[in-house]
Backbone:
């Protein structure tokens, strides 16, 4: 690869119009003066393998080089069976959120969601207080897998997974191990009295999606509430949590921090997450 060739990366999902990733990576590209571009590609799960292959030749036709892509809903688990090589981070989580083209032209699947979640949480609270505690996770998709692993690494002693599809919750609990168990979706409000942290990993509450119906009345006053949704930034769940005095962590921090490792792998620069970046990305939320 010639060093003077433009490097192309991006984000894939279905839908993808809501993604703030192009704004985020575009900011870094400009900040560090790179000959690079970050795009958004709408891709259905059944089209993922074909699209990844096509981008190598499509970018070459532009006299550019395809470096990789981020993956969002619903592609994180689909990619697990599509990439050539799996990084240990993806193997442990069972999902891929970052694809990197290696020196031999192969595609390596990584997962940076877990560290993104932990780094975001650490900006708002002392994560060591979660050691020995209980987590309630809503949802059982790719992000749920990453967050469950991250919480286990923080020393959480019990992870309860509630999902609208019981079989997916049971599958995820089995993947995480003895620390995790599945619980019925209709028990989610009742389980809050045990939780030291509640994390919404579903799309419920996202702009254009149905609301998340859950009663926070039984939640411990010391509990943390996190929502990985960032459109809108302040979901109804977070508004209610703040009114009750809980530490509330929005989904934007996770988006910003999970992006660091992919950017460095694609473009060769380790980027910084700071107040200016957050303000820039937040500006892109206007109108949602």
Residues:
């Amino acid at each position: 690869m010639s060093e003077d060739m433009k490097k192309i990366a991006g984000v894939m999902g279905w839908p993808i119009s809501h993604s703030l990733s192009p704004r985020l990576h575009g900011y870094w590209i400009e900040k560090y003066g790179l000959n690079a571009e970050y795009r958004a590609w709408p891709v259905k799960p059944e089209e993922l393998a074909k699209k990844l292959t096509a981008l190598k030749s499509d970018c070459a036709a532009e006299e550019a080089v395809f470096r990789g892509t981020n993956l969002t809903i619903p592609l994180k688990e689909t990619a697990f069976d599509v990439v050539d090589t799996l990084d240990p981070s993806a193997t442990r989580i069972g999902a891929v959120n970052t694809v990197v083209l290696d020196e031999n032209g192969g595609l390596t699947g990584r997962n940076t969601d877990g560290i993104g979640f932990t780094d975001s949480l650490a900006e708002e609270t002392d994560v060591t207080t979660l050691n020995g505690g209980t987590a309630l996770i809503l949802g059982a998709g790719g992000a749920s897998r990453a967050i469950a692993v991250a919480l286990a690494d923080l020393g959480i002693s019990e992870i309860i997974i509630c999902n609208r599809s019981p079989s997916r919750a049971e599958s995820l609990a089995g993947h995480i191990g003895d620390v995790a168990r599945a619980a019925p979706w209709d028990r989610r409000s009742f389980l809050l009295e045990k939780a030291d942290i509640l994390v919404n990993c579903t799309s419920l509450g996202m702009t254009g999606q149905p609301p998340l119906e859950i009663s926070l009345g039984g939640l411990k006053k010391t509990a943390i509430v996190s929502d990985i949704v960032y459109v809108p930034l302040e979901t109804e769940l977070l508004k209610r949590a703040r009114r009750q005095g809980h530490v509330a962590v929005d989904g934007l921090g996770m988006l910003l921090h999970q992006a660091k490792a992919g950017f460095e792998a694609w473009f060769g620069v380790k980027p910084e997450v700071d107040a200016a970046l957050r303000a820039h990305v937040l500006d892109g939320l206007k109108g949602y």
Summary: DSSP finds nine helices and twelve strands in the chain. The chain has a mean pLDDT of 94. The first strand starts at residue 6 and ends at 13. The two ends are 40 Å apart (CA to CA).
